[in-house]
Every structure is written in structure tokens, then in C-alpha cells.
Amino acid sequence: MQRLTLVLLLAASLLTLPVGASAAPTASACAAVQDEEIVKEFKKYFRKYKDPDARIEAVLALLGAETPGVVDVLVPVLGDKDPDVARASARVLASFETRPPVDALIARMEKEKKEPVRLGLLEAMRAGKYSGLGEPVVEALEDRGWAVRRLAVLALSAAGDAAVVPMIAPLGGDEEPAVRCAVLDSLASLGAEGAVELAAALIADEVWQVRASAIAALGQVRRTSSVPLLIERYKAEEGRLQLDVVDSLTKLTGKAYGARIELWERFWASYGERYQIPTDEEMVKLEEARAKTNEKYTIKNASNFVGVETPSRSILFVIDVSGSMEDLVVDREQFQDGDYPSWARMDIVKTELARTVEGLEPYVKFGIISFATKTKRWKKKLVPANVINKSSALAFVKGLEPLGGNSQMDLALSGLGGGAPGESAGACRQRGGANRHKHRR
């Protein structure tokens, strides 16, 4: 009798379904329910977590949830005091694959006033390569904060839509070097004709990072007129920017002359304006031939830090000694052959820095700054890498210990802007650097 009653109940429930409806929920409906549930659980538990790793894990648990609710709970986290937690939030907000949460992200940008949160929103839009960002992001191009203007440029161009070129091109004349860099990089990535004109205008900029962006843009947007500009620029530069010029000339022409400027001059003297830039198909063949000669023209005596080489003659190492440096590295496989005293981040960085200092050539000038809640300089200015200065530097590095905290204001006051006195503390570009040091020309 019980079995019959159950069958009748099931039959009655099926009869109440609309025509064509399935007895089981669709996969998308189940996913939507799960997304709402994880957001609900996040609201319930996130504030209870005090451990940084637990808070990061909680944020990352929202990866894959395609609901505007994720935006509602994570946007406030973009302003978190722990930068790792804030970055985790931006990572999740950059992972959407459907439009509703992206539109919710844009709507929050329109209302948000706090700069750290605005920066986090723009970074998520940039990393997510979201299109159709609309007025809220376009208006951010006129923000008083240069960091907001910079990320607005990068966010608008990330999707690869050339329609944004007229919006971002005027900022090529922005007073902040980092913004000029962003415009050059963005126009080049979009293949915009204006990239060559702007790069030609900024290739002699007083800020070296802007010149680096201009040089790279000329190599990326390939035009014959850029060849003589780059050849002349090589003569005016030194160190790593010469290497950048060679890279751009090679991308333009497919020629394997390396750092031998006399060969580039002879090449241009022979062809001049008659020279035709190779097609993409021709470049593939030229690159195969060039690979055989690259080693012959490689710049020697490059400094090396954690596998990153630079021909720079002036190098400033900036070392994080905040409390997080006591943590053990998670991905140990990449460090297993380093012969480090322990798996602590601090021990790994100190070991690599000591090895780098020992290997510096005498003609290189270098300096070291450690930072946490305050900054500490080894020397007031860059000094030659002679045996005495190396010994002093090694003693300084040996004494570094994690102190806890970090302060962007302290960095700014220490002049870590990569430019002349009076410039902002924001680095225009990060080219091949490790996250615990900074190369300077």
C-alpha cells in the first residue's frame, strides 16, 4: 500500500509540470543554484577568517561562479589591507565567462569612489579582457589619479577592439610617464597607425621607461620609417635600451645583425626608403635563419638574477622584508636545485641576491633597498661593484630579516619611481624583473 501511494504521488507531481518541461532541473539551473549557494556561504564565513591563507582560499573558492552576487561580495575585498587577498579578489573578478557578472562589474565601477577599489575593478577588467566597458571606464581616463588613468587605458584596450583608439590616444601626452607607457603599449597591441607617430614623438622622452615603450611599439607596429629612428636611438642609449632597440630592429626587418650597429647602418645606407618590410610569411623564414646567428651577437657580461639577465650598467635591488617573507614557498619544484638554506622566501631571496652581487662586473653600479613598514638603504646612491662594495653589500644582505608589514608611502618617499627626482613612485614598465627586485637602466 505504501509503494502504491508513493507511485501515485510521483505521478501527480509529474502531471503538474508544464508541457515540455523536464522532471529534472537543467544543468544551467543547477549551476546557478550552486553559484548562489557558494556566495551565501562566503557571506556567512569570510569575516570569521583571520589567517591570510584561509582568507585567500575563501576568495578563490568563488572561481567559476557566474553570478552578479560574486561581484557584490568581492568588490569590497578589492580594498583589503592584505594585498594578496585583494589580488585574489581581482583574479576571481577577471574570470567571468558570461555577461551578467561583467555588466555588474561595470555598474560597480560607475558608483565606486575609493581609488584602491577602482584600481582593483580596472585590473579585473584588464585581466579578464572584457569588452563593452562603456562610459564608466571611459570617464576614468580623466581621473585625477594617474594609476586609475593608466589602468583605464589598459582595460579599454585589453579586448583588442580598435574602436577605443580615439579614446586612449590623447593620453599619449599625459603628464604621468606610466600613463604614456600604457598608451604606447596599448596602441601597439592594437596595431594602430597612431602608435608609430606617437612612438616617434616619445622615443627621446626624458623618462627611460617611456623610451622603452616607444622602442617596443616601433618594433611591434612594423613600418619602414621606423628603421632609421631606431638606428639613431641605439647611438643615444646604453645598457638594456640598446638591447631593446636591437630587438625592435630585428622584428622589423628579420635581419640578424644583433648589437653590431655598424651593420645596421650599412644595411640602411644600402636600401634606405626603398626597403620593403617583410610579410608575416617571410618573417617566419627569416626568424628560422636568425635563430642560428642570435648567439653570435648576444650582448656579453649581462647581470643575472634568478635566471633573469640584464645588460644594465646601473641596477637597484628592492627587497621585500615584510612578515610574509617568513612564509614557505608553495611551488618548491622550481627551487629544488637552488641549494637554499630553507624553503622560506627570505632565505631564497637572500641567497639569490648574494649570488647576483658576487657576479656583478666592476663597471656595474648597484644599490640595495629593503622595505617593510619602513625602508632601509644600503648606500645613499649607486656604487661601483668593486670588491669592497661587494663585501659590504653581502654583509647587508646576510643581516636582512623579515620585519612585518609594508608601506607604499615609504617606497614613494625612498624615490622608487624609476625616474628623476620629483617623479611619481609608480614604475612605468616591468620587463623581465623578479618580484623581489627592480632593474634600472
Descriptive account of the structure:
The protein has 441 residues and is α+β, with helices and mostly antiparallel strands. Among the domains are: 30-130, no CATH class; 303-439, Rossmann fold. Helix content is 51%, strand content 6%. The chain is built from 20 helices and seven strands. It has helices at residues 2-15, 27-45, 52-60, 68-74, 83-93, 99-111, 115-128, 134-139, 146-158, 165-168, 177-189, 194-202, 208-220, 226-236, 240-253, 261-271, 280-291, 345-359, 387-398, 408-413, and strands spanning 303-305, 308-310, 314-320, 365-371, 375-377, 383-384, 438-439. The longest helix is centred in the first third of the chain and has 19 residues, at 27-45. The chain is globular and about 70 Å long. The relative contact order is 0.06. The model is unreliable at 1-23 and 405-441 (pLDDT under 50).
